[in-house]
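Here is one chain, start to finish.
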Amino acid sequence: MIDVMLDIETLGTDSNSVIVSISAVVFDLQTGKIGGEYEAGVNILEQLLNGGVIDTSTIGWWVTQSAVAKQALTNIIPNDLDGVLKSFNTWLAASTTGQLKDVRIWGNGAVFDNVIVRNLYKRSAVSFVLPYRCDRDVRTLVAVAGINTKSFKFEGTKHCGIDDCKHQIKYCAAAYKELNNGKN
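Its structure:
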């Protein structure tokens, strides 16, 4: 499998927003079959000292989310920044097949997940193992395919990274199938 669904929980929407957690799930785009999972909390203070920003409107948005989502967010154990970025690189290399240059990392929005993660790597001493050509956008794919994402039942807790990844995989695979007229 060379497709990876990425989901981050953040404290802002800016490209340099502080990331609370990074979650990812390997999957097969043609079938929607799910592989390995990755999740790690990221130290907020380190990010603030390294140019990360917090947006008060996003904090306000978090306040309106479900108690389960807020509890899950606060239960994430923050790890040191460089350690998380190194472990994510290692996980990507170990969890995907083929060469890293062929991995497709899917984020939900052309300027959100992937961009914020890449900027976090740029602000750190760790280089991201995936070249920019690996980036893919779920929203664009489903829009082009004419997929209504609201028609897919959400399982788990919204705004919990792994659950969000698995949900996005469902409609990403459906969009791929639609665009290929059901052919692999």
